[in-house]
């Protein structure tokens, strides 16, 4: 079966261009590459839910087997044009009934579109990795988390969280400062699986993201100086090039659930299996 997949961007055109300059690809383009690495026989298209100029001609959600929402800095707690556009797009996905998956902002978009609520993450942004994600009883039995231990780590970069799941939402995992790390949402005719973290992002991409957020990391007290961020990012890049470096893994506090791509990508792989 050849899967026809849609990746949805929620970065603005400016944000997409900035990420291309820093990381070589926008978030939706990274997601597309990840999906093709797992299913090279799939057909993968991209679209923006905040920039209609990117809509391909003759676009029809019903023609897809699955929809993926990439991450972005979108602020779903404020009733701005971009947030409304993203929520309306997701509402249409729910109505059509095509199964969907999302990372980070994708989870927030899906929750708000179904009647949930997002808010700023406190005490500060999550930058780099989230430690101690813990599956709920429902999560331990859920196909999205099949293959995960009860507790695991994952790449993460976000300043917003889902504060309240909508009716029809099932909490699958949480962490210390993030009440919803993974969830299933059933709404209208559709089902959404989502995670607050980024299984699709590599160690090298996290290094790039941290350097891009250097000023904010210092302002929030997560780093004392730009050199601290750069040193940490350099270790991530070295570990990405040589994943067998146990010394770097030890210094960074990372395990195979982050370092080994097959383990980092478990949720996306499970969702692709769900589609078939």
UniProtKB/TrEMBL annotation:
Recorded GO CC terms: cytosol
Classification via SUPFAM superfamilies: Class I glutamine amidotransferase-like (SSF52317)
InterPro entries: ChyE-like, Class_I_gatase-like, GATASE
Span of domain Glutamine amidotransferase: 61-204
One Pfam entry name: GATase
PANTHER family named in the record: GLUTAMINE AMIDOTRANSFERASE YLR126C-RELATED
Name of the protein in its database record: GMP synthase (Glutamine-hydrolysing)
Source organism of the structure: Fulvimarina manganoxydans
Source organism phylogeny: Bacteria, Pseudomonadati, Pseudomonadota, Alphaproteobacteria, Hyphomicrobiales
